[in-house]
Predict the structure.
Amino acid sequence: MKSYPLFTNQESKTIDSLAIKELGFHEETLMGMAALSVFHANEDLWKTAESIWILCGSGGNGGDGYALAHTLFQEGYGVRCFATSPNKTDAGKFYESLVAKTLGVIGTIDDFYNEWEEAEDDSVLLVDALLGTGFQNKLSPELKELIDTVNDSDVFFYRLSLDTASGWNPYALGKGENKENSFVYADSIEELGTRKWENVGFIYEKDSIIPRYYESIGFPVRTHLNDVTFSKRYYLEADPETAISVIKRKNQDHKYSAGSALFYGGSDGMEGAILLSEQSFSKLGGGISKISSPSLKISSFVLGEDLSKMAKTSSLTETLEDPFLKKTKTLVVGPGLTQYPNDLSGWEVPEGLRLVLDAGAIPTKGNPLPQGNQILLTPHVGELNRMTGKTHNSIQEAFDTLIEYCPKNNVYVLLKSFVSLLVCPDGSSYVWESPNPKLAVMGTGDLLSGILARYLSLDLSIPESVLLALSLLDHSKQSEEPYPSAHQILKSLVELL
């Protein structure tokens, strides 16, 4: 599984301390390496600018800005530095002094406003080195005014933030603080030394995750991956080729080795949800499956489409006693159900069976969960709020809730949003950032539950199955249909195979 460690602000500080105090790095060296990494990563960008302005704060982030300004100047670019106040760190002071000698002058914020008023539209590339990831306080009126000016001005054709967008605080989302604590609307963020947990989900335009680029600067990242100093949060990278190859039928497959699953759902009038879930399983190569439903019409719906299918009207209790369940690897419960089935409360999931709870099978807070070692819940944000009795406005807030909920209930939870989050009962978690507006249609949750069942039925782990299912669904971005239905998305995925 392609995944990369994500570090919290505190963990990043610990790595910084480890590099300097234990491994003997000089802070000036690390700042210089950061500046060189950013410079080389954006060489094409610098060439587009008539002028480059760098706003430098008084901490380490400002020091990175000064180091970058020195490199840009030496490489022949027109660069100006403006400082909110003198730098307070030793390494920052070193590069601030160096820039003062080479550029001749470091402007004040008053100088910034004076030059900004005279500048032409779309003439300046702005580098934001005001505040680092450790800043969580409210902005001063002066900084708020400066950031608002940067955001609203047509002078700046591009805004690049170092490490994080200054003023950004995911824990303030939806709570009104961001109306007071403005943040830089970065066009991209250069994460230095570590991938930052607090940057996950940075968005200021609807359905648009702002690009973040990771630059290695020699930090002892691998040394830091231990249970004491690392909280096991990972960033998932798409694996589209593997997603396709894994579910392609093999020549030696028979109907059970190709994957088996049982689906329960589809209350009266909602039969389409469980049908779509099962179809996504079978049409993507599943070997054998069966639908059980409380609907009296389910057999006519299923057999009317395909006489080779199995369908039965039954209660969940009867379904859990179905001999077919003993032969299957995966059980999906929930698509098309209108309420949580009480029969699930306390049910002992048989060893070796993977249980997926979706839609109507997502419990309300207080509903007892089934018991087992391979249970995956797939709520969207509203269902997560109902499930936990808490409101969540960011991925970080959802994580804080789920990192207690999942080990306590021995379940995996996949939060479906513009950023997806999988939290595991062992305390590890995985983030998937790939907003896909083509999935914003009715039925894509049912589609996902069937795709998950397809991978789970092949004896893959839940984290592996989640990554592959999300990677496969990501192919829908290539659909020629501007607003495809869930059935059209499934058809396009089948064509890939």
In short: The first strand starts at residue 3 and ends at 6. The first helix runs from residue 9 to 22. Residues 240-496 form a domain with the UDP-N-acetylmuramoyl-L-alanine:D-glutamate ligase fold (CATH 3.40.1190.20). The two ends are 21 Å apart (CA to CA).
